[in-house]
Amino acid sequence: MKVAVAGCCHGALDKMYETLELLQRRHNVRPDLLLCCGDFQAVRNEADLRCMAVPAKYRHMQTFYRYYSGEKKAPVLTVFIGGNHEASNHLQELPYGGGGAPNIYYLGYAGVVRFRGVRIGGISGIFKSHDYRKGHFECPPYNQQTIRSAYHVRNIEVFKLKQLKRPIDIFMSHDWPRSIYHYGNKKQLLKMKSFFRQEVESNTLGSPAASELLHHLKPTYWFSAHLHVKFAAFMQHQTNSKEELPKATKFLALDKCLPHRDFLQIIDVEHDPNAGDSLEYDAEWIAVLKATNSLVNVTQSAWNMPENNGLHAKWDYSATEEAIKEVLEELNHNLKIPCNFTLTAACYDPSKPQKQVEPVHTINPQTTEFCAQFGLTDINDRIQQAKEEGSVRGEHEEEEEEEMDSTGSAEEPSEYNTDNSGLSSINPDEIMLDEEGGDEDLSTCSVDPSPDHPPDFSASFSDIRIMPDSMAVSSDDAMDSTNEELEKSGVSKQVEEKSLSERPLKRIGGNENGNSGIKKIKRRNQAIYAAEDEDKTE
């Protein structure tokens, strides 16, 4: 089957689906599935915009609300993960995944589903070490800290995914797995994005958590976005035993959704011709969720996942064949994910703007039903309980203090500050660099093949626009390809995406003061998000 993969669409769903329709009209290519690698921006209304970690002037409604309201319907089944520019309050309603809109499915904080027998996994958010060991404690209305920490990857999600034993076909993350750039055309990457050099050379670019999952899961394909540049790599994994067959991962990072940009990739994936056309639960993943349910944490306290280090009575939470069988029996062997999407918020109405509406913490019926069906903890319900218990404790403590001290005491600031006016400050997760020229596309650059790599690689990883004949590399010495070499290599045909009437949205503007005496590392996504091809900067 044909699978379309998109990078950061930033809420421009109309543009993305129009591009797919253009492919069908011009080249008779119709994908069976669309995967989006984060920064989806499922914004329903003005309150959702206030929960997106960008300066206020970049909070644009875009077009997702039309699909949420039912005004439009996604023309192809769409599965997405979260990034670091999301309506976090909306995605938080579905921690285990669920329908974000009709025919649009969110994988949750982490998740695995099946489509036509193809196993698809993903993890939402980006990695930040200071939040990695915390629980999912955030809820709207967010303050300046929680509006960012809400989309930071947590160790419990990585731990769950590491319990999987069965092969994964496709995996998605928003930020790149750390070190993946060593397996592709690193020289060309640094030529096009020179402001990555310091992080690449220090091996700090990307997510160590995603890298850990890459080595553990060894999926056939791994797709990422976030850095707004197309980059291909091929990783040959080491085997753990002589009996284990060698495995390799084809990695591809996608560009952002803009006209004339290579933000879509079409691949051919082997599938089960006898499987249905519905999105399905993955029995092993459900069994893992049930096994790890006792580890759910909704506090800010940092803690480590169980390890085989003598400190934990149990550290293996992988699903047994018996546990997987029980899941299948619970579902009567019907793994079809129910179409139970429910509106939980009012949709944006251009004729009736509501700029002062505050976001609220919502428990989504989809999550309630999912948790009840499989005996899981509803994370949002647990957070709500914790808030209420904390509020009661605070009232009692305040009464006791008044009795002991007639002068009283200053009111403690609320952890969930309802004043969101300060959220327009520069996002500390965005590392912006000085402009380094245009956003050339790495898809125009080939990667020299490894001698050990089979010659028919491109046949199974075809590109509707431009894709190298081979992406396999074994060392940094094999990465001196040029655009001229690509022209001679007989790569796949191009599809020139024309402008579809919308101007691209420039994401981050302004400057950040840095220390003098060194090259200023401003916030990376200033350069990443700016639309240099428009010849304008903020």
From TrEMBL:
Q: Name one GO biological process term.
A: mRNA splicing, via spliceosome
Q: Where is the composition biased (Basic and acidic residues)?
A: 387-396, 485-505
Molecular function GO terms recorded: metal ion binding; RNA lariat debranching enzyme activity
Query: Which keywords does UniProt give here?
Result: Hydrolase, Iron, Manganese, Metal-binding, mRNA processing, Nucleus, Zinc
Localization of this protein: Nucleus
Keyword check for Hydrolase: yes
Where is there biased composition of kind Acidic residues?
A: 431-442
Q: Does the keyword Zinc apply?
A: yes
Cofactor(s) the protein needs: Mn(2+); Fe(2+); Zn(2+)
Q: Where is the composition biased (Polar residues)?
A: 415-427
For this chain, the family text in UniProt reads: Belongs to the lariat debranching enzyme family.
Q: What is this protein called?
A: DBR1 enzyme
What species does this protein belong to? Chionis minor
